[in-house]
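Sequence, please.
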């Protein structure tokens, strides 16, 4: 019994789910589907009513029938156009309901004017219920709309005693009851199918985003990788520029003598150094930059800072002061080499344009360190590039 109640509640609304994030996702998709449904309802109604107007004129019915269908066809087209300007699902449902109620009212007025339901009006009543499932109603909206149409026909035909004979009233009630039952069944089934489809699409998109996140994340340090840098660099630069403030720099850094660190203290310690280094740099940047592991012990930085070299020095000092690094490395001092270029001083449109120049700057510093300790190693020079550091 409880399960049956939950199933009925599930059919009551197209956007109500047991998870808030799923409900938000459903609202976006239901809005688009409802707009398409109301537009389709308007177009189909316009075509049917235009055909009805032509048929009434051809077979010689009173001109009021043709005029009424023509006006209703025009109104249906207006509803179809209006659906494209509405940005709320509830208002779209209201448009669909308004169209059906106005058409039903017009048919009732025709019947009252001539004191009878002819074959055309009976067919129109049936078609009125048949087109309702074109809109992706929720159970609540469908029940309200059908009740309004059903109640309108019933109240108007019974309100004037003796206007319609008993046979007409019973036939009309049968057609409406059968149409309402079939329509509600079709709509309930459609709600169930659509909601299952939304759940499936949500889970698939969630899985895709998780896979995309995993493919763009470095599993060791938890930071972004080279793939993410290549695909999102322009967006990240634009975001940093919007926030304003300090100069934006692009830089590369790697850990000096990292192979010796691995050989001397083990790969476990090398991994620890990389993780702690990333944490220290993230701490130093705060929300003003991004770090990417692009391979081995080499990292790229996109940071808004007036002195990024000094920022890296402070991060390395924090790294060397870490108790775990000190204990596992037996007091070995970690050092890095880095090179930065200010992007605001470049005519470059993408990071790939400055990548080689920054790489040369980084290795220039690295070779200068080696030159200071080994006279045989000559310093490297930086070839002329398109961008130059401000320092």
């Amino acid at each position: 019994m409880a399960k049956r109640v939950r199933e009925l509640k599930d059919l009551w609304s197209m956007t109500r789910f047991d998870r808030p994030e799923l409900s938000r996702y459903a609202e976006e998709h239901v809005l688009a589907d409802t707009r398409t449904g109301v537009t389709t309802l308007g177009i189909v109604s316009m075509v049917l009513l235009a055909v009805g107007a032509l048929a009434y004129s051809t077979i010689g019915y009173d001109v009021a029938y043709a005029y009424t269908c023509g006006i209703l066809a025009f109104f249906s087209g207006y509803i179809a156009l209006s659906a494209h300007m509405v940005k709320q699902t509830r208002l779209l449902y209201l448009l669909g309901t308004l169209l059906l109620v106005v058409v039903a009212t017009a048919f009732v007025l025709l019947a009252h004017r001539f004191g009878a339901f002819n074959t055309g009006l009976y067919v129109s009543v049936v078609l009125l219920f048949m087109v309702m499932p074109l809109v992706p109603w929720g159970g609540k909206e469908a029940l309200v709309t059908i009740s309004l149409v059903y109640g309108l026909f019933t109240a108007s035909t019974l309100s004037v005693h003796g206007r319609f004979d008993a046979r007409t009233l019973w036939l009309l009630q049968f057609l409406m009851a059968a149409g309402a039952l079939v329509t509600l069944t079709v709509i309930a089934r459609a709600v169930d199918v659509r909601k299952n489809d939304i759940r499936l699409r949500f889970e698939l998109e969630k899985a895709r985003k998780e896979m995309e996140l995993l493919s763009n994340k470095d599993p060791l340090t938890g930071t972004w990788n080279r793939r993410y840098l290549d695909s999102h660099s322009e967006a990240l630069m634009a975001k940093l520029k919007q926030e304003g403030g300090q100069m934006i720099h692009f830089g590369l850094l790697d850990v000096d003598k990292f192979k010796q660190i691995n050989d001397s203290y083990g790969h476990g310690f090398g991994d620890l150094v990389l993780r702690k280094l990333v944490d220290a740099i993230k701490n130093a940047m705060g929300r003003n930059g991004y770090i990417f592991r692009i391979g081995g012990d080499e990292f790229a930085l996109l940071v808004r800072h007036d002195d990024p070299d000094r920022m890296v020095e402070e991060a390395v000092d924090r790294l060397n002061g870490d108790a775990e690094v000190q204990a596992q490395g037996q007091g070995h001092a970690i050092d890095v080499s880095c090179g930065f270029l200010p992007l605001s001083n470049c005519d470059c449109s993408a990071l790939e344009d400055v990548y080689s120049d920054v790489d040369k700057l980084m290795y220039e510093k690295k070779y200068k360190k080696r030159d200071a300790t080994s006279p045989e190693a000559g310093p490297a020079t930086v070839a002329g590039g398109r961008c130059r550091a401000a320092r």
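The beta strands are 224-225, 248-255, 289-295, 298-304, 336-342.
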